[in-house]
Amino acid sequence: MAHFPAIEVPKWTLSLLNNLYEIERKLALHGDPGNAGRNVEKMKDAFMSEGIFYEDPMGQPFRETRTDLEAAISGSGTENLVVADVIKPIIRVQWGHAESSRVVQKGIVVVQSKEGGV
Prior knowledge:
Blueprint: H1 11-30, H2 36-49, E1 52-55, E2 69-74, E3 81-88, E4 90-95, E5 97-105, E6 107-113
Parallel strand pairs: 2-6
Antiparallel strand pairs: 1-4, 3-6, 4-5
């Protein structure tokens, strides 16, 4: 197994990305009459140009083998779990090839059983 060197990302960078994610989420929920979403995209592009980005795992399937998420289970079901709420997104840094990345912050999520096969 290959050993990868640790990637240090300043705490302020993680804080900025977490807050940027929250702003993006609130704009999606409440609308964007002032077109602030355009500014959010510009900020995300600036981070991406430095090789750092976040991933929103909302709605993704969850298995206990996932190493990029820390999850709390909501409800009584434990089968067919999906991400129902995201507290913090997954933050990644591009590594080597453009399609490769390393997790520098695990996503913190709430998962629940997919109801009725939906």
